[in-house]
Specification:
The chain is 29% helix and 14% strand. The protein has 299 residues and is an alpha/beta fold. Helix 3 packs across helix 8 and helix 5 runs antiparallel to helix 8.
């Protein structure tokens, strides 16, 4: 989740999700750890400043929930409503207008182990397809599948045309909902040679997340296994071990009192993965894989 663009370089700190989950510019809110700005490869168009609204590349789907292809309807193959009575909170990373409000998203918030930016802008592919648009689209698809399976679903933001909310608020939404499981959807912005997905899970910090660390690990394993099977994407080549990473600096995890993980769906700066992410059918595969992982955990 890195961000390019001179216009915001002075005020925004690139996400640097390198290991993680969620950030964009802004002191790396819930993401920055190892990455810095990644310039576009030679011969490619620069990504919009600080994740500016992107004109989706051809095939980047204007319809967030097209009719799924055969085999990707989201039906579980078990009972008609296997998730009845379950509450799932989906946190689509970033927001489409964050880049326009640097003062607001750079505001420092307490995540217990440190202070971090309220939110970040996220990264983008070299041709301008933003992480915020990607996470919103995947989350909408995921919500539709989960609802079809009987779950009650809440999202931490209601559009891709707003700002925030802060990472502390994102955690609070899951807590208030008393979610049975929560997932934060992201994609990374690392060096173009890096590829693969990883799941981020919380560590004990002597705080509110401690009682759900064990459950979050089980959730993370189920999501990882289903994501690998459903998308065919490899484990990350640059973060974690076997696509698993543990963090104690992410507000979305530290402040969660319900089982929660982050999914870094892959690297938007890697040309092969960027191309996949811009295909509606592949985003549907991602959503279905995540739904299957959540269902495996919740059953």
């Amino acid at each position: 989740m890195s961000v390019t663009g001179k216009a915001l370089a002075a005020t925004l700190v690139l996400c640097g999700l390198g290991a993680a989950a969620c950030g964009g510019t802004a002191a790396g809110a819930d993401l920055a750890r190892t990455r810095g700005p990644v310039p576009p490869a030679a011969g490619t168009a620069a990504a919009p400043a600080a994740d500016a609204p992107a004109r989706p590349a051809a095939g980047a789907a204007s319809d967030p929930t097209p009719s799924p292809a055969a085999g990707q309807s989201g039906q579980s193959g078990q009972s008609d409503k296997p998730l009845s009575g379950k509450v799932v909170v989906i946190d689509p990373g970033h927001n489409g207008q964050n880049y326009r409000h640097p003062a607001e998203i750079n505001k420092q918030v307490n995540v217990l182990t440190q202070s971090k930016a309220c939110d970040t802008t996220g990264t983008a592919t070299d041709n301008g397809y933003s992480e915020a648009a990607f996470t919103w689209d995947v989350s909408q698809r995921l919500a539709k599948i989960l609802k079809s399976r009987g779950a009650t679903v809440k999202l931490t933001r209601d559009s891709n045309s707003g700002v925030g909310p802060c990472i502390t608020q994102r955690a609070a939404i899951g807590n208030r909902a008393k979610a049975d499981a929560a997932i934060s959807v992201h994609a990374d912005g690392a060096s173009p040679a890096n590829h693969g997905f990883h799941v981020i899970m919380p560590e004990k910090i002597g705080g509110p997340v401690d009682p759900v660390v064990k459950a979050s690990r089980k959730l993370g394993l189920d999501v990882r296994n289903a994501f690998r099977r459903g998308t065919g994407l490899p484990y990350s080549t640059y973060i974690g071990k076997d696509a698993l990473d543990y963090r104690n600096d992410l507000g979305g995890l530290n402040l969660s009192t319900v089982p929660k993980v982050f999914i870094e769906s892959g690297n938007m700066r890697n040309s092969a993965e960027a191309a996949k992410f811009q295909q509606p059918a592949f985003r549907q595969r991602i959503a279905l894989a995540l739904a299957n992982g959540l269902q495996q955990y919740l059953k």
